[in-house]
C-alpha cells in the first residue's frame, strides 16, 4: 500500500507541472495578444490624432459662430423691441410698450454677468431711452389727472370735486395710470442708478430711503409738495421759518 501511494505522488506532481506549464503558455499568449492590441491602439490613436485636432478646431469655430449668432440675435431683439415700442406709442398701446420694456429689462438682467460690454451698453442706452419716454408720458398724464382732481388739496377753502360722470371717468383713468406706472416700476428699479431715469423728486427721497425707493405714482404725487417746500423753505423768503414747518 505504501508503494502504491509513493508511486502515485510523482504522477500527481507531473500532472500539476503540466497544468502549470499550460497556464504559463496561456498567460504568455495573452500577454502577447495584449501587447499586439496595445500597439494597434497606439497606432490608431496616432492615425486619428490629425482628425481629432481638425475636429477640435471645427468645434471651436462652431462655438465662435454660435456666440456671434447669439450676439446678433440679441441685437435683432433689441431693434425689434425698439420698433415695437415706437409703434405701440404711436398707436397708444401703452400696455404693449410696457411689456416690450419688461422683455428688454429681462435681457438686461441676464446680460449682467456677460463680458459683451458694448452690447450691454447699447442695451442700457436703448432701455433707458424708451423707459424715459414711456415714464414721462405716463407721468404727464398722471399729473394732469391729479390737477383735475385738485391734488394736492391742502387749502382749507378748497372744495372737494363733485361726484359726476366726468369725475368717475377721471378715477378710472387715474387707476389705469397708477397700474401702468406700477408695471413700469420693475424696469425703473433696474435703471435706478441711471440719472436719465430718475424723477426730480427722487434726489430728495433717495437720500432718505436709498434701499427702498418709493413707487412711481407716489413719487409723482410728492412732486407738488417738493416744489412748495423748496419755494417756501429754500431761500431767503419770509416763509423760510422753522415755525412754518
Automatic annotation (TrEMBL):
Top-level division of the source organism's lineage: Eukaryota
InterPro entries noted in UniProt: RINT1_Tip20 (IPR007528)
GO BP field: endoplasmic reticulum to Golgi vesicle-mediated transport; regulation of ER to Golgi vesicle-mediated transport; retrograde vesicle-mediated transport, Golgi to endoplasmic reticulum
Pfam families linked to this entry: RINT1_TIP1
Phylogenetic lineage: Eukaryota, Metazoa, Chordata, Craniata, Vertebrata
Name of protein: Chromosome undetermined SCAF9489, whole genome shotgun sequence
Gene Ontology annotations for the cellular component aspect, listed alphabetically: Dsl1/NZR complex
Amino acid at each position: 500500500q505504501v508503494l502504491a501511494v509513493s508511486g502515485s505522488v510523482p504522477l500527481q506532481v507531473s500532472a500539476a507541472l503540466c497544468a502549470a506549464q499550460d497556464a504559463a503558455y496561456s498567460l504568455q499568449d495573452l500577454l502577447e495578444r495584449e501587447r499586439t492590441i496595445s500597439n494597434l491602439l497606439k497606432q490608431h490613436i496616432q492615425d486619428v490624432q490629425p482628425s481629432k485636432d481638425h475636429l477640435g478646431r471645427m468645434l471651436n469655430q462652431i462655438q465662435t459662430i454660435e456666440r456671434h449668432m447669439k450676439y446678433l440675435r440679441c441685437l435683432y431683439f433689441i431693434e425689434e423691441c425698439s420698433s415695437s415700442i415706437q409703434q405701440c406709442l404711436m398707436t397708444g398701446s401703452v400696455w404693449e410698450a410696457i411689456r416690450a420694456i419688461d422683455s428688454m429689462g429681462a435681457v438686461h438682467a441676464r446680460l449682467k454677468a456677460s463680458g459683451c460690454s458694448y452690447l450691454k451698453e447699447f442695451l442700457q442706452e436703448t432701455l433707458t431711452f424708451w423707459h424715459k419716454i414711456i415714464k414721462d408720458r405716463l407721468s404727464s398724464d398722471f399729473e394732469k389727472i391729479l390737477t383735475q382732481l385738485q391734488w394736492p388739496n391742502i387749502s382749507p377753502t378748497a372744495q372737494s370735486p363733485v361726484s359726476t360722470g366726468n369725475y368717475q371717468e377721471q378715477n378710472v383713468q387715474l387707476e389705469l395710470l397708477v397700474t401702468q406706472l406700477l408695471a413700469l416700476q420693475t424696469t425703473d428699479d433696474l435703471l435706478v442708478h441711471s440719472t436719465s431715469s430718475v424723477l426730480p423728486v427722487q434726489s430728495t427721497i433717495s437720500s432718505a430711503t436709498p434701499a427702498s425707493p418709493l413707487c412711481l405714482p407716489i413719487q409723482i404725487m410728492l412732486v407738488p409738495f417738493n416744489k412748495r417746500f423748496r419755494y417756501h423753505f429754500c431761500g431767503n423768503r419770509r416763509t423760510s421759518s422753522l415755525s412754518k414747518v
